[in-house]
C-alpha cells in the first residue's frame, strides 16, 4: 500500500491499476479522463464537481442527498423511446430489437458515406473513429455470439478490435494501426450481422433461457456459464450505444473542414 503526499502525479496514466479502497484528500482530479473503469461504492464529500460528463451504466447516483438515477433514466427514455426495445424478455422481442438495430445502422452507414474516406478514421475527443467502431462491434459479435453461444474458440477476424482496456494475452487481435476502408469493414460487418440474425431467428423460449459456456481457454469472455439472454443482451447494448456515439461524432465530423 503506497502513500503519496504533496507529489505531482499530473499527466499520469494508470492501466489495470487497483486503486480500490484508496483515499483522496485535497487532491486535484481536474481534467482527468476515466475510461472502462469500475467506480462502485464511491463516496465524494466536500468536492467541487463542475462540468462533469459521465456516460456508462449508472446505478444509485446520489447528488447532495438526492438520488438522480431515476430522473436520468427517465430523461434518456424520453429522448430515446426505442431504447426500451433493447431490453427484451422473449424471442420475439430480440427479433424486433435486431430488426430495429439493422435499420438504424443502415441509416448511420449512409450518413458516414457522405464524409471523405479519411474522415472515417478521425477520432473525436479521443473516442473511436467510425471505422474503429464498426471493428469493435465485429469483435463483440465474435466474442458473445460465435465464441460464447457458438463455442468457437478462435472466432476473431484480424480486423476485430477489442475495447481499449482489454487484457493482454487473450488470443484475440488488437491492431489499432490498421486503416481498412469502409467497404472492407462493412464486408466483415455484414457477415457478423447475418450471424446474429440467424441466432435470433432461431431463438425459442427454451434456448433463450439456457446457459452457455465459452471454450476453456484464454480467450474472451472467460470460460464460465452465461445465460444466452445475457450474451444477446450485451450485443444489443453494444450495438445501440456505439451507434449513438457514432451519430454524435459524425455530426461533429460533418462540421470539420476537409
The CATH superfamily label of the domain at 87-253 reads dinb family like domain
Biggest sheet overview: 2 strands, antiparallel
The residue ranges in which pLDDT falls below 50 over 5 or more consecutive positions are none
Strand percentage, roughly?
Answer: under 5%
Structural class of the secondary structure composition? mainly alpha
Give the strand order of the largest sheet, numbering strands 1, 2, ... along the chain. 1-2
The counted number of beta strands is 4
* Computed CA radius of gyration, to the nearest angstrom: 20 Å
Any guess at the CATH architecture of the domain at 87-253? Answer: Up-down Bundle
Q: In the CATH scheme, what's the topology name of the domain at 87-253?
A: Four Helix Bundle (Hemerythrin (Met), subunit A)
Distance N to C terminus: 50 Å
Mean pLDDT across the residues is: 92
Helix proportion: 25-40%
Helical stretch tally: 6
Shape: globular
The secondary-structure element order is EEHHHHHEEH
- In the CATH scheme, the class of the domain at 87-253 would be Mainly Alpha
